């Protein structure tokens, strides 16, 4: 173990840890844009700079390894000034339409500007003028808002493996895009939307959530994806009894925040107008609405009316364990083992 | 799965056979690609050039329905080249000699004749797999949905045991379960021969334990499987069918047969969230709550039990399945009084040794637990068979190659195989009603090769009629290099082009799984 001091507090960490990790262990906050513990380090955004005693320049804490006896300051005047200049530069060509931006309230650029009191840019930069990319049904790409942190690109290459997007060009003309500036539909993109979850600003917006609520109005419920047997953790964001957004759950031990298109964008069947909302009974050849009592009485009568061996049931690989358990308990209690589900199918 | 999903990225070699993982289990697919980037050898075996094949060190494109021959060929090479794990075979297994004798004739040359895979590639695959520090096999329906599915699974086990690749981190045999809770449905005894935790219903101990707890006597004789239930209806033996959240009218092989049964059964109850093709045939339809509208647990493919939490209320008068079942039980005088899913789970844990140590409280605190978890202190089991197999020794079973039940002939010259795609799921009940996915992939496109397209004078987007001995469908075609000449691929997501009108309901004699993966068809241009 290596021992160092951050803002006057002592901390011990593994020798291969970075200053950022040591600070995290102490609960000391350091802002970042381009850092993610699951991705390769690039040290590009310079938001995480800190002062280390005995070193002349500020260092990027995300990719500077700790040394024994190191003395670190994360909140000095110098550090703040550097971060402010950074934000200032980013704001120089960032649209300030926070009023209608879906990311408002959950945007790291907004949060850090608030924290360091940066309200507008002192630099007069050229504005970017990219057309909105909204041809796919899953999410909108507004590259005018992109701060080029590269999280989406690394997520696509290192987590998904699709490798659909790159940072094209250099300098002011840098832009995240699929090859040949093609729309994502014509690229290897599989619309997992993990880039959307990774983006710290409002450059990538899921279409299903637009206008459905501010992040701070939403309640989060952690649950499990209803599709395949991988069992990825999902975070459902709820407002007024409606799921308005879905993200991968980073705390889930199976999926660690990863998802595919079905889990991410495929659960709004919940609010389909075709959902069944009342029991139906066949009368004169037609299915007609009925009360629960009438339907359940009829089913109970029919279940009672046959010998156990004349009864069979298909249980569900979609339903919960508890429901499958009760289904087989019910049928077995009625004297039949004729129970199966589509495991074989 | 004998391993955990989290172990995939550290494997030395991955053998993926009959699984289009990046489309059917995408997040597991990400992990396989991660493993490959970290240096694992990736071997993909499939009749189609699936997406994962593009990332593979070695892609073996075998003829559909020839898995056992290929697996036997790999074992043959491993034994012949001295790559077998002799210590593992000696200490942990039995029946090696018989199995070794059976694979003797499966030389790479002979296997090439059957499978169409070059003998050299078979040798290379065997070496990559057997020489890795830890090697894991993954398969899905491409292995099981055959009339010889049970043999395929046994051959996979033989391969893993001969190379000592079981019972270790990142090494094992991993069937990837299709639906979110298919593992749980099996664990819960939604099967004709076992109650929870695979306790045989006809065993005396099971009988007395459940009788004491439930207060009713369990029927002793094992019941009918899904395919037998359909036949039972047609024979007149089964009069009432209760379907909870399944859609056999689209998912079952030889659909016409199933539709006939659903029409014939005296009373059909269907409990579901949509008016599915099956529900439309019902006498009573009960509206159910969907996953985000109730509490409970799912068990994933790595045996991990996880909490499912309610986020919103069910629409209208729809109710959770467990509520409906309890209502029925009380009308039938069974006197259930569960206060909620947690109480049901406590009963499951009480009656099921592999779930005994699991509770909602632990799931909440520990983020899921993998069975077997026999007591409250047990941390769960990330990989199975660590020190010994469930039954003591691992048993080798000799397996012979058996051709598919139906092969292409002069009248039906093409081979049809079925599966899923990335965007849709199963019978499409949920994904087709998603506002984004539905319109993005609105229709089925049957895949055929360039060669066959040219021969038949068909172009991309043309409407064709595909027929088998059992039925016909009209569908548009996609001309692609994914399928080899002679093979047609369709998914079963779309009722407008219900591929199961064509498939063969010939089942594996043991597992009773129909042969979805191979049947003979012909294809001709259709008038719209
Ligand atoms: S949606 Fe997924 S595949 Fe597509 S660009 Fe984003 S991360 Fe890559
Ligand atoms: S789109 Fe978002 S995640 Fe991607 S580089 Fe731009 S700001 Fe970063
Ligand atoms: S998010 Fe995708 S991979 Fe994960 S469980 Fe759902 S369907 Fe499967």
The residue ranges of chain A in which pLDDT falls below 50 over 5 or more consecutive positions are none
Q: First CA to last CA of chain B: what distance?
A: 45 Å
> Remind me, CATH topology of the largest domain in chain B?
Rossmann fold
The rounded distance between the terminal residues' Cα atoms of chain A is 54 Å
Shape of chain A: elongated
The DSSP helix count of chain A reads: 8
Q: Tell me the CATH architecture of the largest domain in chain B.
A: 3-Layer(aba) Sandwich
The CATH class of the domain at 2-75 in chain A turns out to be Alpha Beta
Mean pLDDT over the residues of chain A: 92
Strand arrangement within the widest β-sheet of chain A reads 2-1-5-3-4
Number of domains of chain B: 3
Question: What tags apply to this protein structure?
Answer:
heterodimer; A: 345 residues; alpha+beta; Ubiquitin-like (UB roll); 3-stranded antiparallel beta sheet; elongated; B: 528 residues; Dimethylsulfoxide Reductase, domain 2; Rossmann fold; Barwin-like endoglucanases; 6-stranded mixed beta sheet; 19 helices; 21 strands; 18% strand
Overview of the structural elements:
The complex is a heterodimer of chains A (345) and B (528). Chain A has 345 residues and is α+β, with helices and mostly antiparallel strands. Among the domains of chain A are: 2-75, Ubiquitin-like (UB roll) (Roll); 306-345, no CATH class. Chain A has helices at residues 19-26, 77-92, 108-116, 151-160, 194-198, 261-265, 292-304, 321-333, and strands at residues 2-6, 9-13, 49-52, 59-60, 71-73, 139-141, 165-168, 175-178, 204-206, 219-224, 233-239, 242-248, 280-283, 286-289, 311-314, 339-340. The relative contact order of chain A is 0.08. Chain B is built from 19 helices and 21 strands. In chain B, helix 3 (67-80) packs parallel to helix 9. The two termini of chain B are 45 Å apart. The interface between A and B is large, with 108 and 145 residues. Strand 15 (311-314) of chain A pairs parallel with strand 7 of chain B. The complex binds iron/sulfur cluster (SF4) (3 copies). One iron/sulfur cluster binds next to helix 4 and helix 5 of chain A. One iron/sulfur cluster is lined by residues 155-156, 160, 162, 164-165, 184, 189-195 of chain A.
């Amino acid at each position: 173990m290596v021992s160092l001091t951050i803002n006057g507090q002592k901390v011990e960490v593994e020798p291969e840890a970075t200053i950022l990790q040591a600070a995290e262990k102490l609960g000391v906050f350091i802002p970042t844009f381009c850092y993610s513990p699951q991705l390769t380090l690039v040290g590009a955004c310079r938001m995480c700079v800190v002062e280390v005693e005995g070193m002349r320049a500020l260092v990027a804490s995300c990719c500077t390894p700790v040394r024994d006896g190191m003395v670190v300051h994360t909140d000095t005047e110098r550090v703040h000034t550097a971060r402010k200049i950074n934000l200032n530069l980013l704001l120089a060509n960032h649209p300030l339409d926070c009023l209608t931006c879906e990311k408002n309230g959950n945007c790291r650029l907004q949060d850090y500007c608030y924290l360091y009191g940066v309200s507008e840019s002192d630099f007069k930069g050229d504005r970017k003028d990219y057309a909105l990319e909204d041809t796919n049904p899953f999410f909108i790409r507004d590259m005018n808002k992109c701060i080029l942190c590269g999280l989406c690109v690394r997520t696509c290459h290192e987590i998904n493996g699709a490798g659909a997007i790159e940072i094209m060009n250099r300098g002011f003309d840098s832009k995240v895009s699929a090859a040949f500036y093609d729309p994502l539909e014509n690229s290897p993109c599989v619309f997992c939307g993990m880039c959307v979850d990774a983006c710290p600003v409002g450059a990538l917006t899921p279409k299903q959530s637009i206008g459905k609520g501010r992040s701070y109005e939403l309640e989060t419920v952690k649950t499990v994806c209803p599709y395949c047997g991988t069992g990825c953790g999902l975070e459902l964001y709820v407002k007024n009894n409606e799921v308005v957004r879905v993200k991968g759950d980073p705390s889930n031990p199976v999926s660690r925040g990863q998802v595919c298109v079905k889990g991410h964008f495929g659960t709004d069947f919940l609010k389909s107008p075709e959902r069944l909302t009342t029991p139906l009974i066949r009368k004169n050849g037609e299915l007609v609405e009925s009360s629960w009592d009438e339907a359940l009485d009829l089913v109970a009568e029919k279940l009672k009316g046959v010998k156990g061996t004349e009864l069979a049931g298909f249980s569900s690989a979609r339903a919960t364990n508890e429901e499958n358990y009760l289904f087989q308990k019910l049928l077995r209690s009625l004297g039949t083992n004729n129970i199966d589900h589509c495991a074989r199918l | 799965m004998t391993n955990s999903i989290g172990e995939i990225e550290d494997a030395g070699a991955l053998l993926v056979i009959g699984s289009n993982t990046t489309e059917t289990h995408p997040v597991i697919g990400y992990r396989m690609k991660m493993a490959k980037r970290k240096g694992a050898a990736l071997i993909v075996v499939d009749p189609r050039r699936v997406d994962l094949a593009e990332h593979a060190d070695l892609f073996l494109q075998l003829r559909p329905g020839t898995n056992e021959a290929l697996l036997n060929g790999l074992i043959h090479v491993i034994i012949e080249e001295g790559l077998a794990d002799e210590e593992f075979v000696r200490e942990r297994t039995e029946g090696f000699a018989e199995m070794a004798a059976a694979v003797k004739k499966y030389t790479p040359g002979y296997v090439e004749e059957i499978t169409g895979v070059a003998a050299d590639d078979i040798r290379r695959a065997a070496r990559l797999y057997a020489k890795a520090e830890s090697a894991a096999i993954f398969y899905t329906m491409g292995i099981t949905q055959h009339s010889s599915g049970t043999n395929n699974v046994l051959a996979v086990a033989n391969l893993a045991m001969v190379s000592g690749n079981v019972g270790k981190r990142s090494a094992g045999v991993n069937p990837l379960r299709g639906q979110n809770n298919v593992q749980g449905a099996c664990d819960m005894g939604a099967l004709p021969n076992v109650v929870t935790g695979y306790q045989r219903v006809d065993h005396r101990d099971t009988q007395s334990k459940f009788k004491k707890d439930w207060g009713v006597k369990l029927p002793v004789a094992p019941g009918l499987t899904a395919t037998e239930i359909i036949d039972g209806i047609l024979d007149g033996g089964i009069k009432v069918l209760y379907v909870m959240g399944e859609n056999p009218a689209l998912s079952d092989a030889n659909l016409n047969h199933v539709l006939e049964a659903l029409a014939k059964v005296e009373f059909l109850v269907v409990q579901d969230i949509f008016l599915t093709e099956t529900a439309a045939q019902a006498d009573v339809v009960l509206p159910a709550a969907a996953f985000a509208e109730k509490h409970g647990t799912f068990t994933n493919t790595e045996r991990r039990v996880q909490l499912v939490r309610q986020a919103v209320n069910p629409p209208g008068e729809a109710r959770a399945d467990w509520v409906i079942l309890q209502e029925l039980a009380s009308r039938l005088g069974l006197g259930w009084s569960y206060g909620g899913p947690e109480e049901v789970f406590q009963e499951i844990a009480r009656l099921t040794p592999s779930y005994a140590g699991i509770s909602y409280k632990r799931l909440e605190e520990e983020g899921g637990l993998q069975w077997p978890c026999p007591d409250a202190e047990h941390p769960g089991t990330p990989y199975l068979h660590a020190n010994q197999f469930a039954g003591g020794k691992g048993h080798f079973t000799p397996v012979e190659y058996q051709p598919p039940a139906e092969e292409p002939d002069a009248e039906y010259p093409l081979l049809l195989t079925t599966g899923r795609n990335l965007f849709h799921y199963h019978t499409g009940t949920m994904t087709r009603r998603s506002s984004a996915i539905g319109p993005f992939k609105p229709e089925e496109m049957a895949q055929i090769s360039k060669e066959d397209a040219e021969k038949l004078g068909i172009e991309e987007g043309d409407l064709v009629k595909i027929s088998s001995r059992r039925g016909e469908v009209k569908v548009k075609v996609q001309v692609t290099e994914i399928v080899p000449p002679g093979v047609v691929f369709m998914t079963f997501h779309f009722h407008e082009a219900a591929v199961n009108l064509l498939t063969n309901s010939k089942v594996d004699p043991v597992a009773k799984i129909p042969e979805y993966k191979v049947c003979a068809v012909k294809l001709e241009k259709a008038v719209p």
